[in-house]
Amino acid sequence: MRYIKLPSENFGKFFKSLGEWGTLYAPVKRGGIYSFQEVHDPAEIALDYNRTMLPPKKFFFRPKEAILRLKNGRWEEEVEAEPTVLFGLHSCDIHGLKILDKIYLDEPADPYYKSRREKTLIIGISCMPDEYCFCKSLGTHFAMDGFDLFLHELPDGWLVRIGSVRGHEIVWENGELFEEVTDEDLANFKEFEEKRAKAFQKELPQEGLADMLDLAYNSPVWKKYADICLTCGNCNMVCPTCRCYEVCDRWMDAYSSVRERRYDSCFMENHGLVAGGHNFRPTRLDRFRHRYYCKSYFDPTAGYNCVGCGRCDEFCPAKIEHVKVLEEVRGSLK
Amino acid sequence: MSENPYQTYDARILEVKDLTSREKLFTLRFLDPEVEAKFNFKPGQFVIVDIRGFGEFPISICSSPTRRGYLQLCIRKVGRMTKFVHKMKEGDVVGIRGPYGNGFPMEKMEGSNLILVAGGLGMAPLRSVLWYAIDTGKYENVWLLYGTKAYEDILFRDEIIHLLKHGEAMNCSVKLAYEVESPSCIYLEQGFSDRVCKGVVTDLFRGEEFDVNKAYALICGPPVMYKFVIRELLDRKLSPGRIYMTLERRMRCGVGKCGHCVVGTSVSMKYICQDGPVFTYWDALSTRGLI
């Protein structure tokens, strides 16, 4: 990997130059909530944000989108994607995208996701954990790939890691904005990372996690939390790795129809309902437990389906905490 | 063909046949000869039927790949979509995409005996296996144990009765269990006293000797059936690896994206649409919620 430095005074110019690559989106604070919004000026960005409500998956796998349009009795594809720059992704969200890639780019690739993914530039940014973050214990607190450029905060600028050929091109074309990294910068980078590592307040021990959960299938803890859970599906919506979707056809007028898909939630009763009325996850307990099993499933090529971003905790109206549930389940085994 | 996995291909309904009061058999052929030529499938696979402007639903293929030029789907009227399909007539066009899923390992089972155990609508995917076995002649003996509610509910009744009469010549032995008595059933029972009885599908195992080292069991039926049938097979010392079952889940996309058919726990998660719908009993033992 190549490391270079972006001095603070060049940040504005660098940011403007990204606009040439596509529409710029970055975290913006609105009310008490951060979200990825279109920006034109670096002053609009909340560089020190903790987490956005909807993760960056919304740019690739939309909350609601048309996949096919019926015109004259035939389905027409609608693969539209415009060049986009996502600025300021945290490491956990980059890992989240990698897990989505595993599903949506695996053959047969989802053409909508794929075309958007190919046309999007990913610029990562370093962060400080808050009380909800537990990415460090899942190994997703640092991204080694999955981005074009990654910016690490230094006292007088940014240490930039280049993660792709496109990243190299951007730096190449804006060569005058960057400097070589000095030993002092590296020392500052190391200091920041050490400080950050100590700042984590929450931990999810991943040792034997998948096995432990499987053994605790009948643990009373599931029931306890399923009774508290409102099954609203909020955690699914805000999760950077949840990707269930539902499809339906909608008539536009007498001659044309559109096939739409939208986010679905495994907490909804009809998620597991088949024709004839058989439901293979009929109770709230079944569905609650399923989400935890799905998030804790370990794929040898993509890792856990959870990246420890803390969104499900922050936006849960019933105040259910992911780590606490898993810890209690683990405790119930002893 | 299109690279878009959600695109469907036009297929014309060649024939609609009433099987029972709830089920109809649709015979289809792709309009595009190129698609028709490329479309190949394995017994146990399924397709997604697309009624443009109304939606899609998955359905298993009940014809055999040995009989080319058409595709047959047995559709039960249970919901909004299937109700709509039941109103369709010969000449109407639907969209089809697929085939999806793993299907039964027919080549691996060559030279063995096949024990097909069907319950109700489970007859549909197993019919594909049955005709494949009969057409290829690569299997020593085929048993079909079929449990049905009443005489009127027997799917492919003509074919079943034909096999009851002439199955021996094709190395195929059919046995039938019914739950509701009727004059037709009693007449059938009188004609084939050793192979038709009142009861449930597990009753058909009585008196049958299978060479467990040479047999494979293929099961499809309502969820409640699996436990009892598997117990019967295990009692006869059939290895769990030789027990195949095909499962029904909510396959929405068919290509492992939408997540509706996912079952299992943190150590073993399966997408029924891609890892299945055919699983062995070993899979069921290692994946919770499979059966």
UniProtKB/TrEMBL annotation, chain A:
Signal peptide interval: none
Domain (4Fe-4S ferredoxin-type): residue spans on this chain: 218-250, 294-328
InterPro entries the record matches: 4Fe4S_Fe-S-bd, 4Fe4S_Fe_S_CS, Helical_ferredxn, Sulfhydrogenase_beta
A Gene Ontology molecular function term of the record: iron-sulfur cluster binding
Protein name as it appears in the record: Hydrogenase
UniProt source species: Thermococcus celericrescens
Taxonomic lineage of the native organism: Archaea, Methanobacteriati, Methanobacteriota, Thermococci, Thermococcales
UniProtKB/TrEMBL annotation, chain B:
This protein's record includes keyword Iron-sulfur: yes
Pfam families per the UniProt record, alphabetical: DHODB_Fe-S_bind, FAD_binding_6, NAD_binding_1
GO molecular function, one term: flavin adenine dinucleotide binding
Binding-site list for [2Fe-2S] cluster: 253, 258, 261, 273
InterPro entries linked: Cbr1-like_FAD-bd_dom, Cyt_c3_hydrogenase_gsu, Dihydroorotate_DH_ele_sf, Dihydroorotate_DH_Fe-S-bd, FAD-bd_FR_type, Flavoprot_Pyr_Nucl_cyt_Rdtase, FNR_nucleotide-bd, OxRdtase_FAD/NAD-bd
Swiss-Prot/TrEMBL keywords: 2Fe-2S, Electron transport, FAD, Flavoprotein, Iron, Iron-sulfur, Metal-binding, Transport
Cofactor note text: Binds 1 [2Fe-2S] cluster per subunit.
Signal peptide: none
Cofactor: [2Fe-2S] cluster
Annotated GO biological process: pyrimidine nucleotide biosynthetic process
The keyword Transcription appears for this protein: no
Residue intervals of the FAD-binding FR-type domain: 6-106
Protein name: Cytochrome-c3 hydrogenase subunit gamma
